[in-house]
Each structure stands twice: as C-alpha cells, then as structure tokens.
Amino acid sequence: MRVNENFGPKDFDRLVDEENATASRLIFTDETIFKMEQEKVFAKAWLYVGHESEILNVGDYVTRQMATDPVILTRGEDGKAHVLHNACSHRGAIVCNKDSGNARGFTCPYHGWVFGLDGSLKATADDQSVYEGKVDFSTLNLKKTARVDSYAGLIFATWNDKAPDLGDYLGDARWYLDMYHNRTPGGMEIIGEPQRWIADANWKLGALNFGADGPHAVKVHGPVTVAAIGVPMSLVRESLTGSPSVSMGNGHNGIISQVPAEYHDQFPPYLGSHPDMVELYKKHLGPEQNQFLSYLLAGVQTMFPNFSSIQSLMAFDPMGMPVSFMNIRVWQPVSPTKTEIWNWFLVDKEAPEDFKRESMLSGIRSFSVGGTFDQDDSEAWSSITRGINGNIGQQGDVNFQMALAFRDKTIPDFPGPGRAYPSNYAEVTEFDVLLEWQKYMRS
C-alpha cells in the first residue's frame, strides 16, 4: 500500500489493525501521512505548551512549538495565559525570537508592527490613516489558540474551538497527574531551561515508548538501571512484569513500575524522596496514590498526542542514596523521520534547595540530551527509522501482539481509575496510543 493525496479517512482502518494489534510501518515514515497529522491531530488535540511557573508575572513569556507552528506563551495584563501564533499578521515574520523574557508586547522586526501581550494589534509602521479607512485592523491581531487551560500547573492549548474542556480531555489521567504533579499544596515548578535535541525518528515512537513500552526496558536499559539504582537484574525484570500498566482513556496511557512486595523489607518507602515531602504527599494525596508512590521505581506516561513524563530515581554515587526526579517532555514533529525533543525537569516547590539541585542532576544524568537512558532510546529509535524507511522496509508492519494476551486481563480491584493490566509488558496501553491516533486520522 502506498499513500497519496487521495488517501481518505477509511484508509486509516488498514493502517492500524486493532484486532491483530499491528500497524503499518508507513505511519512512521510517510510524508503524506505526516502532513495529514498536522491537520487531523495537532490542529485538533490539546497540546502542552508550558508550565505556570514559567510565566508567573505579567509580561512573562516563553516561545514554544505546537507541532510545526511556533507560538508565544504569555502572561497577559489580564493575568491570564495567552498562546499566540508567533508570526506577524502583516507578512508572517516571527515577532519574538527570544526563548523567554518579560515584555510589554512584541514588535515585528520586519515592518515594525506592534502587538500586545494578548496578541492585539497596537500599532503599524505608518499612521493607519494612509490606508484611507480601507483596512479593518481589528482583523489583524496575532492569531490566538482557540482555548488555553491548565491542570496541575501544566498549560495546554488547542487551535480547535470544538475541543472538549481540558478536564474532560484529560479525564481519568487527572488522578495520575495529581500523583506526580500535584502532590503538595504548592505543586511543582520548572527548574532550569528546556533542553532540545533532534532524534532521527518519528514523533510517535517517543509517545509510544512512554505510553509505555515495558518490554524494552531490560534489554535497552537493564545494565544502567542495575548500576544506577543498585538492584539485581532479576528484580528489574520482576518489577516490570509484575507492575500495572494503565489505559486512562482518550489515548492517555502509562505504566507504574514498583518494587515487588516480597522486596519491601529491603527498601524504605518513598525511596528517593525528601522526608519533608513525604509528609506533604501523605496529607495532600489519597491513600491509593500514596500506595503507588511509596514503592515507586518509575511512573511513565503519555498524554495524547505528544506530552510525556517520567518520575524515577537514580543514584550515581555507589555509596549514596537514590534521588528521585520528575522529567516532562514534548515530542515535536519535524518531519516523518525527525523529532525535536523538548525536555524539562520539575520539582516540588516546597523541597529544600539542595534537594532540588540533586533532583535535577539525577534527571540530567539519565533522561536528557546526554543522559544514559535517552541515549539508549534514541539509538533504538534511529535504528527503527533506518530499518523501515526503505522500499522493502515500508511494506511490513510493526508488532504489538503482546496485547493479544493481555487485553482481556484487566485488574478488577485496581485502586486507581482507568483500565489496568497486570504487567508493564502488556503492550495494550502502548498500542492504545495508536488506536487514538487512528480515531483522529479518520475523523
């Protein structure tokens, strides 16, 4: 099968085979599909653009991407967050070239048009009287996203004025976002600037991996996990095969890797967390959420389409204790076979400053542009791109058929919302990301 400009919504039924848990390799390599995604997925879904802690004051701004479109996230004079298309309404030039800052507005460097923090046109290069009243300047504000909203400090935006409310879009995922991002009265804050790097892979590979691919962890990350956490390989595998994966609905999915119960006497609860934070977790979260956090090795999840996060812990000093970190990222599509990864670290606002520093270092050494885990994953994703991008390679399928053995094995008494499966190896939640993608593409 080859994709062309006449490819229609029903054709996407063939690209993702729900019954057999397989998908065409074309969805990771084809240029036409990539272009359709921009309209079908990224122009319709809620996309992560920034964190409340990045724009605390009026005039604060950061420049970001919503898929292939540049945007500015600002704190307006009205105190609200605004997301503006970073392209002048006059000729389309970028109006803000800095990564972040504080400003009273934005001036186009080409013709000098001036826009307010809310995107409203304030002035043109010449007196507007020269247009002799023939131009309606109220139509020439910067284009804004249809909606902006936040949850647990995470700011999302959508171009789609018919999108559901963000709360409804996140649905059951909010319970898990609370567990990782909203577990103290102050919530989380961004530490450091975002890292950005290019991976030679389709954006969906990262979203699937975090959505989450349990089976790769032992093969790809096993040795460094043993070294960084100080646990035997058998425990790593047992924690993966015996910990739950969760489908949260609307394409949001993840895994919760935990210390197996028989090893609880060998690990203190809340390993890697600062003691002062533990008391806040116990007060601010429910008992079920604390049950997961108390023996958490890694909580990994993807909010459809391209926002992912991981909480884990690392110890790079053989004599030291592991330190937990929270990493969030966006898989920004660049081309069918290139993704720009935007990567941030967060920490509880109430945490001591020395712990914040140690947490960030723990994350940088593992999940970052130079981190051991990201280097592992990027090499694997790049090899997939090389393997399936040729004439013969594009003709096959990618296989998620572990899901066939697990899709009917939900955990009946699971303490959290959503559909839970008894293993990180289930591949059900990972494949659910593609099923949600299919819904958007054939809509």
Describe this structure in words.
The radius of gyration is 23 Å and the shape is globular. It is built from 13 helices and 21 strands. The protein folds into 2 domains: 47-162, Rieske Iron-sulfur Protein (3-layer Sandwich), CATH 2.102.10; 171-441, Naphthalene 1,2-dioxygenase Alpha Subunit, Chain A, domain 1. Helices cover 28% and strands 27% of the residues. The mean pLDDT is 93. The strands form 5 sheets. The protein has an 8-stranded antiparallel sheet, sandwiched between helices. Strands 6-5-4-7 form a 4-stranded antiparallel sheet, with no helix packed on it. Strand 11 (147-151) and strand 12 (154-158) form a beta hairpin. Helix 5 (203-209) packs antiparallel against helix 13 (428-441) and helix 6 (216-229) crosses helix 7 (233-241). With 443 residues, the protein is an alpha+beta fold. The longest helix has 17 residues, at 372-388.
The level of helicity is 25-40%
Quick one: CATH class of the largest domain? Alpha Beta
Runs in which pLDDT lies below 50 for 5 or more consecutive residues are: none
N-to-C span: 21 Å
Shape: globular
Name the CATH superfamily assignment of the largest domain: Naphthalene 1,2-dioxygenase Alpha Subunit, Chain A, domain 1
- Would you give the CATH topology of the largest domain? Naphthalene 1,2-dioxygenase Alpha Subunit, Chain A, domain 1
The rounded Rg comes to: 23 Å
Query: What share of residues are in beta strands?
Result: 25-35%
How many separate structural domains? 2
Number of helices: 13
Average pLDDT reading:
93
Q: Give the beta-strand count.
A: 21
Based on the structure given, which CATH architecture of the largest domain is correct?
Answer: Alpha-Beta Complex
Task: Kindly name the structural category.
Answer: alpha+beta
Strand order of the largest sheet: 13-19-18-17-16-15-14-21
